[in-house]
Amino acid sequence: MKNFLFSVALITALGSSVRADEVTDTLASAVEAYQAGDIKYALEEIAYAKQLLNDMQSGALETFLPEAPEGWTREIDVDAAAGMAAMGGTGAVAVYKTETSGQNERFTMTIMIDSPMVAGMAGLFGNAALMGSQSKMLRVGREKFLQQNDKLMGLIDGRVFVQVEGGDPELVVPMLETMDLRALGRFGL
């Protein structure tokens, strides 16, 4: 705990010398509360600072979501990303929509990083047979994606989960190919 608080204090001191913002102000408040013996409030402030940092990271993660194909629109789902942060990970979600021949079509692309759910899925990618006869492996660049029914799922560098749900693979795979999956695998390291 002392090392963590020292790190918080150091970050706060360095951050305040550069510029004050909500994260550094919150961390400074946590240190003050800790020094005053108010552990409960210090923990609340640390949790809030973590939430702010997760929000920043989610915003940066959105840049990996590909633009919508021609004739489609892309809408970033900030509520879904906030839900992922509440579960202990960082994520970004986009909903892609089009209207063709009077029918609305849509699919969702999700990127999730360092979530406990991601660790649980790692074994699936080593053995597509575990997913049943409706599954097959596809290559997107150097990465493997598992196709199961209307889902494409990939695990990048063992920590970044990419899922597309509801999209036609002939439309979605070229979109995935535009993503810098190598940089995505190193995101936040």
Describe this structure in words.
The protein has 189 residues and is of the alpha+beta class. The protein folds into two domains: 2-56, no CATH class; 61-185, Protein Transport Mog1p, Chain A (3-Layer(aba) Sandwich). It is 47% helix and 26% strand. The chain has a seven-stranded antiparallel β-sheet, sandwiched between helices. The protein is elongated, with a radius of gyration of 20 Å. Residues 12-19 have low confidence and may be disordered.
Helix-strand blueprint:
Blueprint: H1 2-18, H2 22-35, H3 39-61, E1 73-76, H4 78-86, E2 90-100, E3 103-113, H5 116-126, E4 135-140, E5 143-148, E6 151-156, E7 160-165, H6 169-178, H7 181-185
Antiparallel strand pairs: 1-2, 2-3, 3-7, 4-5, 5-6, 6-7
Helix pairs in contact: 1-2, 2-3, 3-4
